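Input record (one chain):
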Amino acid sequence: MRHLGELESAIMEHVWSCDAPVSVREVLHGLRRDKVLAYTTVMTVMDKLHKKGLLRRSQVRRAYLYEPVMSHEAYSAQLMREALAQGGNQAMALVHFLERLSPEEHAALDVALYKTARR
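The corresponding structure, as predicted from the sequence alone:
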């Protein structure tokens, strides 16, 4: 898994924000607030996201409806795990990461550690 490009990220953000599967047209209308895009461009990128395993799709009549395979948080966690795996000395990579946390991020980490310790 790799970081997403600018349009891929915008599309995934829109899909993650929806409560139900969405069509290419719905995503296009949601993105048009920020930039001018062609339908075929959005369709192509969504197809690529499907092939990368980030979107699942189902055909309804002549159109596909797309939904995320994983939550935004699960995607972020996967990226973090991959970065940690590639970081050489994992303990030192974690130390450097922890040293750079803001107070808010540190508080979020404390909550996450508490939740995982209760399992």
